[in-house]
Specification:
The protein has 409 residues and is α/β, with parallel strands linked by helices. It has 2 domains: 244 residues, Alkaline Phosphatase, subunit A; 137 residues, no CATH class. Helix content is 36%, strand content 20%. The chain is built from 16 helices and 13 strands. An 8-stranded mixed beta sheet has the order 9-8-10-1-11-12-2-13, with helices on both faces. Strands 3, 4, 5, 6 and 7 form a 5-stranded antiparallel beta sheet that branches. Helix 6 crosses helix 7 and helix 11 packs parallel to helix 13.
């Protein structure tokens, strides 16, 4: 029987110990007996998921975890999400990530208040994207709905390098003017600024915002265009290692990376990309894939990252506990039906509560096999940043993980 390979990602679980009294990060404070058991029975170490000189986005980090060097294959975040959305970009098309964001007026300045507009629902987002298409689309430009605040804008005949706008979660509480193109503008910059300005007018009195305001929720005040690029091309995991499998996530970014790697996208009903996601459905989908003969399963849970962006210590701690109790524990239990498997459990990057955005620090990872769990050996350690940092296992570049621990190259 073929060996099975599993990767479980708790997005942004890790934090910065120096930011907490006594180093009590969310990973330390959280109860996660399943990950602690795996760390004690298997291998525990740290790995750098952000290549030197690159940004610490989930796009780059998950690409490295899947065994690809982003300096060779990365073209932008949005085209990866386009693949996850089922869009096949033409050679003359550029995809932008189109966040639905919340803004705040302070001393006559517009500030970035919320990168997710209060986690707008899928249905609310779809209605707003429909409005944008009705009023702003043309033969060279179209908007596509995604999951919650994560949507897309596809433009023809544009140089993706001609404009840079930072991710909205990197500029929370800061003036928009400080981060938008200024001075003599090129066509790409003017287009992006024009679309964002027009969206503010279109959204102002929309029924979605009227209802959200009446319910005491944050409103959707604007689109935010960023992360643009053209379609990337990756060798598949089957071409690289002869494995087939699935990717299971509530967000198009991870689905897109999986699809580009040759994995099947499994969309689980109720997978929200937030703390209320369908954990049990994700686990069952992964185990079902193994039962039918697939050899590679990649399950991603977004909730800890969202809590980190919110700067909410209690929520992040809870998100880690849910990941452990509802994903890691049940999946390991389901693996008892298989004799030969190896699994990696890790975050893709740190999302420090203090920063409310991603950081480049190495992250703690666990590698455990069926044989490890059968062994009587058990180290006295937990799955925390500090325990991982004391390990002698330190991987300098994350794209070596699969070859080192899965495929034995």
């Amino acid at each position: 029987m073929a060996r099975r390979y599993i990767i479980l990602i708790g997005d942004g679980m890790a934090d910065t110990p120096a930011d907490f009294k006594g180093g009590r990060t969310p990973l330390v404070a959280a109860r996660h007996p399943n990950m602690d058991r795996l760390a004690a029975k298997g291998k525990l170490g740290t790995v750098a998921t952000v290549p030197k000189g690159m940004h610490s986005g989930s796009d780059v980090c998950n690409m490295t975890i899947l065994g690809y060097d982003p300096k060779k294959y990365y073209t932008g975040r949005a085209p990866i999400e386009a693949a996850g959305n089922g869009l096949k970009l033409a050679d003359d098309e550029v995809a932008f990530r189109c966040n639905l964001v919340g803004l705040r007026l302070d001393n006559a300045q517009l500030l970035m208040d919320d990168y997710s507009a209060g986690h707008v629902t899928d249905d609310e987002a779809r209605r707003l994207i429909e409005l944008l298409n009705k009023e702003l689309s043309n033969p060279t430009l179209k908007f596509y709905p995604g999951v919650s605040y994560r949507n897309l804008c596809v433009v023809k005949y544009l140089d993706p390098s001609a404009v840079y706008i930072p991710p909205p979660h990197d500029i929370l509480g800061q003036p928009l003017e400080k981060h938008l193109p200024r001075g003599k503008l090129n066509d790409a910059q003017m287009l992006a600024l024009d679309l964002m300005a027009k969206s503010r007018e279109l959204f102002k009195d929309h029924p979605v915002n009227q209802a959200r305001k009446a319910a005491g929720k944050k409103t959707v005040d604007s689109i935010w265009l960023w992360g643009q690029g053209k379609r990337p091309s990756l060798p598949t995991l089957q071409e690289r290692a002869g494995v087939t499998g699935v990717v299971i996530s509530g967000v198009d970014l991870i689905r897109g990376l999986g699809k580009l790697a040759g994995l099947e996208i499994v969309k689980v009903p109720g997978a929200t990309g937030y703390i209320d996601t369908n954990y049990a459905g994700k686990v069952q989908a992964g185990l079902d894939a193994l039962k039918r003969g697939d050899t590679f399963v990649f399950i991603h849970v977004e909730a800890p990252d969202e809590a980190g962006h919110a700067g909410d210590l209690k929520l992040k701690t809870r998100a880690i506990e849910l990941f452990d109790a509802k994903v890691v524990g049940p999946f390991v239990k389901g693996l008892k039906k298989f004799d030969d498997w190896v699994m990696i459990v890790m975050p893709d990057h740190t999302t420090p509560i203090k920063l409310r955005t991603h950081h480049t620090d190495p992250v703690p990872f666990i590698v455990v096999s069926a044989q490890d769990l059968k062994s009587k050996k058990r180290a006295a350690r937990r799955y925390t940043e500090a325990h991982a940092a004391r390990s002698k296992i330190k991987i300098g570049v994350a794209w070596e993980l699969l070859d080192k621990f899965f495929f034995g190259k």
